[in-house]
Amino acid sequence: MHEVAVAQRMVEIALSAADENGGGRIVAARLLLGKLTCVDPETLDFAFGVATRGTLAEGCRLEIVRIPARLRCGSCRSEHERELLEPCPVCGAVGGEVLQGRELRLDAIDLEEAKTSASCVVQSEATGGGG
Amino acid sequence: MTTQVSVERDVLQDNARDAQANRERFARAGIYVLNLMSGPGAGKTTLLERTVGALNPRMRLAVIAGDLETRRDADRIGRHGVPVVQINTGGACHIEAHQIAKAAGQFELSEFKLLIIENVGNLVCPAEFDLGEHDKAMMLSCTEGHDKPAKYPLMFREAQAMVLSKMDLLPHTNFDVDAAIADAKALNPGIEVIKVSAFTGEGLDAWFDWLDSRIKAAQR
Question: Which residues of B touch A74 (CB under 8 A)?
Fold first, then answer.
């Protein structure tokens, strides 16, 4: 259940990124999740929902983008999307260097523009007063 | 109206930073650090009892024992006269680097040559958390089944050694030693395989020799 720890970190990072970008409610977050990570997407989604409670990210939609494993063969150096114990389709060797698939990366968040509606009200009042 | 903000941050970046700080601290103190991992009940604590019992007079060593609850592992190892700090993760399935930083603060690190971290018994989660250790060793007992390296590839891929334990029980199991080694080597061609029985003492010298060689390699 390290998904709870991962979800808590995601919320911390999302909140600080929102803060650095003028604040506001976080309505969506996109996570890049490599298939070689030991993180279960469904458990993470649930844990993320719990971790956002009472924060500006409460109710935030989590989009999890799965990144397949990509290996460079240790024998023939060819690169393919394949599992760790799946043989190289070119030479049949198993294993190799992991090029992709270990990602656990918060890629982007969607912020609600909280100030827009407030400034509209001020503007319309100003317009009303002038007319 | 929403705006998309690019974040592009590794979720475990804080752990990676803490692990790097640990690594630098261990290097300054001249201490070699091993992260010992396995599923629950593979025999980590028993192997550590035998290890500290045998090495303690000639090599200064210390242990950090991680568990969900209780001090039982620390008490068992501490009886052999080495300093042990227990980390209780309070239900979390792994140790994180900041917990090691705090626990290591309770030792005068430069007085020791070897620090062994006994991770929480779990074949999944600890693989994601770098602690700043020099090496990882994976223990697998022959009562667990030889398919574990194939089922939990990340843990075996990142380990420098696979310790096959409870070898005295091998005749009573259908554990296929060759199959377990073949899968581990396919994942990790450089992995050292050490077969031990902490009960009979079989293979313990090979385990001590491996520790010695890794300590020397880290000092170079």
Answer: 189
Q: Within chain B, what is the greatest distance between any pair of CA atoms? A: 70
Q: In sequence order, what are the beta bridge partners of A70? A: A81, A100
CATH of the domain at B132: 3.40.50.300
Angle at the Cα of B14 from the Cα atoms of B8 and B19, rounded to 5 degrees: 125
- State the residue for tokens 């902490």: B198
Taking only residues 83 to 102 of chain B, the set having a beta carbon closer than 8 angstroms to any beta carbon of chain A reads: 91-94, 96
Compute the residue count for chain B.
Answer: 220
pTM for the full model? 0.89
Q: Phi and psi dihedrals of B95, rounded to 5?
A: -100, 145
HSE at residue B184, side-chain half, CA atoms within 13 A, is 27
pLDDT tens-place string over residues B190-219 = 999 999 999 999 999 999 999 999 999 998
What ipTM, to 2 d.p.?
0.84
Interface residue B219 vs chain A (CB under 8 A): no
Q: Note whether residue B3 is domain-resident.
A: no
Q: Domain A3-69+100-130 carries which CATH code?
A: 3.30.2320.50
Give dist(CA B36, CA B49) in Å, integer: 13
